[in-house]
Fold this protein.
Amino acid sequence: MRHVLDEGLWLFERNLLLLKEIKAEDIPLQISLNVAEFWVQVHDVAYDFMNLGSARRIDNYIGNFINSHENQFDEKWEAYMRIRVSMDIRRPLKKGTLRKGVLANG
C-alpha cells in the first residue's frame, strides 16, 4: 500500500483513482481529494537548463513542485527531466509548450 500512495497516479478503467492516507481521528467526508501528484517528463530542455532550479520553475508553471528524480542532474546528460508535481484536478491541464522565459526568469 505504501508504494501505491507514494508513487501515485493510478487508473481504473482509464479513470483517475485518487487515494489519500487518513488517520483514525480523520473524518473521511472532510478529506479533500482535489489534488493529484504526477511524474512529468519534460523533453527538449537545453543542457544549460537541466538543473533543479529549472525543474522547480517548470513544475511551478504546471502545478506545485514536489521533487525531481534523484541523480537526474549528475554529470551524465539525460534526454528529459523527470519531475513530480501536484495539481488541482479541478483545473484543466495546460497545453502547448513552455515559454523560454519560464526557464530563464522563473
